[in-house]
Amino acid sequence: MCTRCQASPSYRWSGICWRQNRFSLARTGVVEFCLVDENIFLPENICRHVLDWRNVGEHKVDALAEMLSFVAADIEVEVCHLNLTGQESTASLSGVLDRLGRCNLVVDATAVPQVFNLLAAVATTYERPLVWVEVYAGGIGGLVARSRPGLDPDPFTMRQHITTSRLGLQPRTCLWFRTTLQRT
Asked: How far apart (Å, rounded) are the C-alpha atoms in residues 11 and 36?
């Protein structure tokens, strides 16, 4: 039985796909989480969230941290009420990005390109795996992708390939161009 797993995933959201995933990870023995989100839980969020009426008006990460603490007694959750792409203190942003870089897994469920760029840079710099997810409007599908350092291309190259493939462009040309830029 695992009493303390060394994995410590970080999450930046709150994206609908990863809410249950945190609890699954906690139930399998992951005991350290870093949650980053500035959003407040509103009544209109109830229909698509694991939180309920008791949490209305609370920061989502605070409510989720409390829920995670009910899964196992030794779970440690660090919460950050920060908008990664907002007008925040650069010292605060730097501290949060450094903390995310020390996690064993970085998850982006925001579907916000600017946040992806920040987290992909963190994952690349600190050589951490990055998982990102997007849910398409109207529930017509979505995207889940991962980039593992040393095993997969970097997140920027993968994102470029996925985007060009969706648009019907020739991904080889784009990948060659990016590779050429990196070599010079």
From this structure: 6
**Which amino acid belongs to residue 96?**
V
Residues of the chain with pLDDT below 70 are: 1-20, 139, 166-184
Q: Which residue type, as a one-letter code, is found at position 139?
A: G
pTM above 0.85, yes or no: no
26: number of Cβ within 10 Å: 22
pLDDT of residue 6: 44
Dihedral sign of CA atoms 14, 87, 54, 74 in order: positive
Distances (CA, A) of 151 to 122, 128, 129, 132, 143: 17, 11, 10, 17, 20
Domains of the chain, start order: 9-143 (3.40.50.720), 153-184 (no CATH)
The dihedral sign for the CA sequence 135, 64, 106, 146: negative
Using the structure block, give the residue that is written with the tokens 């019907």: 168
Q: Distance between alpha carbon 130 and the CA centroid of its chain, in Å? A: 8
**Terminal Cα-to-Cα distance of the chain (whole angstroms):** 50
- Number of DSSP helices (H) and strands (E) in the chain, helices first: 6, 6
**Percent of residues in the chain assigned helix, strand, coil, to nearest 5:** 45, 20, 35
Structure tokens at 45: 């969020």
